[in-house]
Amino acid sequence: MLSPQLFHKILGVAFSLLLYCAQGKPAVISPPPGFRNLSEDQIDERFMLGTYSYHLHFYLDVPLCSIFMLCKLSAIFYNLMWMITASGGKIFATSEKKADFHTTLTKCKEAGGSIATPRNPDENDAILYFVKTFNTYAYLGIKECLIPSRFQFLGSTQLSYTNWHLNEPSGKGEEECVEMYTDGTWNDKSCNKNRLIVCQF
Hints:
The protein is an alpha+beta fold. The chain folds into 2 domains: about 5-75, no CATH class; about 80-200, Mannose-Binding Protein A, subunit A (Mannose-Binding Protein A, Chain A, Roll), CATH 3.10.100.10. The chain has helices spanning about 5-20, 65-80, 100-110, 120-135, and strands at about 45-50, 55-65, 85, 90-100, 115, 140-145, 150-155, 155-160, 175-180, 185-190, 195-200. α1 (about 5-20) crosses α2. It is globular and about 40 Å long. It starts with a helix and ends with a strand.
């Protein structure tokens, strides 16, 4: 499970590697004075890193085999200008762009994630942060199954957590997707509306 603190550290590594990756150069960062050098075949290497978004410094063990993965991560966040929150082992992100449900699925997949799917109150609150920040609604990774007014997670998994708005769902087979309101509750909705793209990683 990736903690928010660990994610911030990893993101710091990713941003520090961005310039090297963009120029097609090998990603090499010298450890600070006093740290011993480790060969490339060893498990990790200690770096002093600064995360641009938080202006903090961390000591972090970074597996050298993760360099290319971190470059990919940095490119995603740099190019799409993602805004992020975290809950438990999940990272939630949005670029503030809007799209219909199927386009949202595609965009999240292209970014290496999937559509945001809250499975507990904390994850629901993490998504709600974006919804309230941008004062708009967001699609969730939940759809109506073959039985009208019965919903499930994508992948046909039964809902283990719900937060329906009063008297919802009410579409009775005509509203197959689910959106989050600005109070964090859910509503069934047609899938062709433009809603905030929120992905999870």
